[in-house]
Amino acid sequence: MTDERTVLAVGAHPDDEVLGPGATLAKHAAVGDDVHLLVVTEGATQQYDDRSIVERKRKETRACADRLGARSVRFGDLPDMMLDDVPHVEVNQVIEDAVDDLSPDVVYTHAATDVNLDHTAVHESTLVATRPGSGVERVLAYEVPSSTDWAPGAGYFDPTTYVDVTDRIDTKIEAFAAYETETREFPHPRSERAIRAWATARGGAAGSEAAEAFELLVERRLTP
Q1: What is the CA radius of gyration of the chain?
Q2: 165: closest CA among 214, 213, 211?
Q3: 80-116 pLDDT, tens per residue?
Q4: What spatial distance separates the first Cα and last Cα of the chain, rounded to whole Å?
Q5: In this structure, what CATH number is given to the domain that contains residue 93?
Q6: Could you tell me which InterPro entries the record lists for this protein (predicted)?
Q7: Residue 47 lies in a domain
Q8: Number of structural domains found in the chain
Q9: Tens digits of per-residue pLDDT, 159-194?
Q10: C-alpha angle with apex 118: 128 to 133, nearest 5 degrees?
Q11: Of all helices (H) and strands (E), which one includes residue 141?
């Protein structure tokens, strides 16, 4: 009998999977868990005129996955920045297919309060795909710099779970560096300095040097 788990990280766009739970995914991989990534959109059409950027981003995602220790990457290829116009069932299906094929124990997805509407659509569809009967035991929502932190108002990210990533924050930085199309200069949130600063702040809340924060959405236990 093994304690190894199957982990699926669902992101709307290339880079969400590392900006959010990247260091935690690296910790999963380091202890022998099978880590898989799903990118729901192609992440380019509404930002770039050149369709070749789609394949470039996929190469970056694969390089990032290798650095995190992920076993596989899937691409949903739905339209970028347009998931609010895509029928909900189509977004559901992309995530359900991954859940059916991989049978994950743990799923990471976007927070419901992100300013990016693609993120909130993925959040809602993940809850559908991981409903009772899916076999998924645990679902957690992660935060993404330049989306979760830019959402004002009463609905805000409210972490309930922290993971000490002191030993994997460098891995996260190295993995994110694969995304040459997405890195920005400080003080932009998608910069190395800002990512480290955010991990330090979350670590301060958790009592560690560096941490990633999550909202626990689902916990299905057979025992108390």
Answers
A1: 16
A2: 211
A3: 999 999 999 999 999 999 999 999 999 999 999 999 9
A4: 21
A5: 3.40.50.10320
A6: GlcNAc_PI_deacetylase-related, LmbE-like_dom_sf
A7: yes
A8: 1
A9: 999 999 999 999 999 999 999 989 999 999 999 999
A10: 10
A11: strand 138-142
Indicate the residue type of 55.
E
- Domain of 90, in residue numbers: 6-218
**What is each CA distance from 100 to 96, 103, 114, 129, in whole angstroms?**
6, 6, 26, 9
Answer whether residue 71 shows pLDDT above 70.
yes
| Phi–psi pair at 39, nearest 5 degrees | -105, 115
Q: How many residues does the chain have?
A: 224
Residues 6+ apart with CB under 8 A from 97: none
223: in domain: no
- Pick the more confident residue, 145 or 155: 145
Residue type for position 151: A
* Residue 224 lies inside a defined structural domain of this protein: no
Q: How far is CA 139 from CA 55, 113, 212, in A?
A: 30, 16, 15
Amino acid, single-letter form, for residue 191: S
Check: CB of residue 107 under 8 Å from CB of residue 126.
yes
Alpha helices per DSSP H over the chain: 16-19, 22-30, 52-68, 88-102, 117-129, 169-176, 192-206
* Side chain identity, residue 69: G
* SS3 sequence of 41-85: ECCCCCCCCCCHHHHHHHHHHHHHHHHHCCCEEEEEEECCCCCCC
222 and 178 Cβ atoms separated by less than 8 Å: no
Residue 3 near residue 31, CB atoms below 8 Å = no
Q: How far is CA 181 from the centre of its chain?
A: 18
